[in-house]
TrEMBL record:
Signal peptide positions on this chain: 1-29
UniProt-listed SUPFAM superfamilies: Lipocalins
Superkingdom of this protein's organism: Eukaryota
Protein name, as recorded: Karl
Native organism taxonomy: Eukaryota, Metazoa, Ecdysozoa, Arthropoda, Hexapoda
Length: 246
């Protein structure tokens, strides 16, 4: 005959069952959340750290060869969770007078039916010329020190740049640009560069930046803020034709 279980044994078994029932649903829920919830992805993406990742700029960096025009084919920013941009391009230049690097950039919002081109610029200084691939922003609008690193480039085809700023009362700002001299890169080149990102950057949030139909973009006219120009022309009929083709 099987052994009988006393009162104490029954209570112990009951307690074990309660623990199992209490633990396993939460484990299953966490697993479901981990793989299916946007909330989990947001937590994993932002991370607990407010400090910038420790990275090093590319060695033996040739600053002059990095200058010129680049297409931004992929983009990451710690403050953004959905792809928003298209036709993003950057032009780097170096001034020997003040030893500053300037990036003039342009982009459009991907969902903008008018495809209006927006522009901006960023200026850096080189804190140590023995490390020319490490730059710091010169603008006063940024809180704290805003560091930029050229992580890798072959100068003629692709490049990878990372920005990071630590803030006193806000989470760090972290971003990365995957650059190409042409509008697109091969899949193996993209995989190679994404593999060089620090672990703080979740590559699943490294969004593609479309570079299609980026030649006919609208710009606000300098003379009339309500008018638009397309490739330097300000002709209503021509603009209407171009907009209808987009």
């Amino acid at each position: 005959m099987p052994p009988t279980m006393g009162r104490n044994g029954s209570l112990l078994l009951f307690a074990v069952l309660l623990i199992i029932l209490d633990v396993f649903p939460s484990v299953n829920a966490n697993l479901w959340t981990r793989h299916n919830s946007n909330a989990y992805q947001t937590r994993r993406r932002s991370g607990p750290s407010n400090r910038c990742p420790k990275v090093g700029a590319i060695k033996n960096f040739d600053l002059e060869r990095m200058m010129g025009c680049w297409h931004v084919v992929q983009y990451y920013a710690s403050t953004e969770e959905l792809p928003e941009y298209a036709c993003m391009r950057s032009h780097f230049s170096f001034s020997k007078d003040d030893q500053h690097i300037t990036m003039n950039f342009s982009y459009i919002f991907a969902e903008d039916p008018l495809r209006e081109k927006l522009v901006g610029n960023i200026t850096w200084m080189i804190p140590k010329f023995e490390e020319p691939g490490h730059w710091q922003h010169t603008e006063d609008i940024y809180e704290g020190i805003y560091n930029t690193y050229v992580l890798d480039t072959d100068y003629d085809n692709w490049g990878l740049v990372m920005h990071c700023a630590e803030k006193k009362k806000q989470p760090r700002y972290l971003s990365a640009l995957l650059l190409a001299r042409k509008p697109a890169l091969a899949d193996n080149e993209i995989s190679f560069l994404r593999g060089k990102l620090p672990q703080d950057i979740d590559a699943s949030f490294m969004f593609d930046i479309g570079q299609e139909s980026c030649d006919n973009l609208m710009e606000s006219s300098r003379d009339d803020p309500l008018a638009y120009v397309v490739n330097g022309r300000q002709n209503a009929k021509e603009i209407f034709k171009i907009v209808n083709k987009l």
